[in-house]
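Q: I'm writing a short methods note and want an example of a predicted protein-small molecule complex. Could you take the sequence and the SMILES for pyridoxal-5'-phosphate and return the bound structure as tokens? Please keep the output block clean; save any remarks for afterwards.
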Amino acid sequence: MKLFDVYPLYDIEPVKGFGTYVYDASGNRYLDLYGGHAVISIGHAHPTYVEAISRQVSQLGFYSNSVKNRLQQELADRLGDLSGLNDYQLFLINSGAEANENALKLASFHNDRTAVLALHKGFHGRTSAAVRATDNLKIQAPINRGVEVTYADLDDLDAIRALLHTHKYTAFIAEAIQGIGGIHIADGEALLQVRQWCRETDTVFISDEIQCGYGRSGRFFAFQEIPDLEPDIVTVAKGMGNGFPIGGVLIHPRFKAWHGMLGTTFGGSHLACAAGIAVLQVMEKEKLIDKAGQLGTYLMDALKDNAGLVDVRGRGLMIGIELDSPVAALRKTLLFEKHIFTGSSSDPNVIRILPPLTIQKVQLNEFVQVFTELLSTTPAL
Ligand SMILES: Cc1ncc(COP(=O)(O)O)c(C=O)c1O
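A: Understood, no commentary inside the block.
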């Protein structure tokens, strides 16, 4: 059987990883500034993580959501403590798209509406309502277009106010820092204003923290940079499992569950919870959230001295480097010649830096040196 050929692949095959590095079969070492798409939070093969998953799979990897699973409550407690959202309720699933899909369903159950208000350049996943809320018509199949979505600009607050006050939107969904869109930090005042209008119109405010959350921005959630912003629903995935598929929907206490309202076979399995608990333990013990904030500022300051950059922006270890021309060739050189993984974005001129939160200063320095050299020696990138 052939693989369904939907991914343009680099001719590289990592076969193992440790910390901030991955290795191919010939033993070549690659610095991972991409984190496997913002997924690797506590580093590849972290010993605490390996031990926790190995122990759990040798006992019980999976049983269904029809029985008690105390690991789910332990994960919820730890997540509540570390994020400060202790009074929220947790629903566990397997991916980011599923997190947003369930968040949108919850909103619709809550206010009995069907339209969604989303932002231009946002990305929310590939499932039906989530992909429809994603501002990219190319990846929406006709079947997805059944959900009515309006895309707005956060700097056009008049339009957003008018739209919300039609009372037809079930939810407003946004990333506090847009990832795939090219690392754009949402304006805090604008989000607070939209939050207020959502309250007035009973529109559910969903903060998609799938890429910018879980410590990456230097706070547990990127929206927490905005004082007093209180989303109704927060969605998480990616860094939550450090590569083990797990996602979560964090739900404000005013939303009441009823049996059968949401459900999943695999979500919240014993193995997924063991992975999720290990991630939170390591994040807390190694103070990775504070470190992400400090190292991000350090890296952005170091890069800003480079001539030829249009912009360096972001928070913590979620950084966009914008050039005045497409970055594809530069990223290839970084990967194939310098053995450094970086991320692309939907903006062809922006490189995304999304390393494991365990990265060290010395590795960032290594990148800055290589990057500076390449910028100064490569004509017309
Ligand atoms: C902000 C955001 N939301 C949702 C998703 C979808 O997550 P997944 O690919 O796990 O379904 C992504 C994935 O890149 C994302 O960056």
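A: Remarks, as requested: Residues 175 and 238 are 14 Å apart (CA to CA). The chain has two domains: 14-42+309-377, 47-285.
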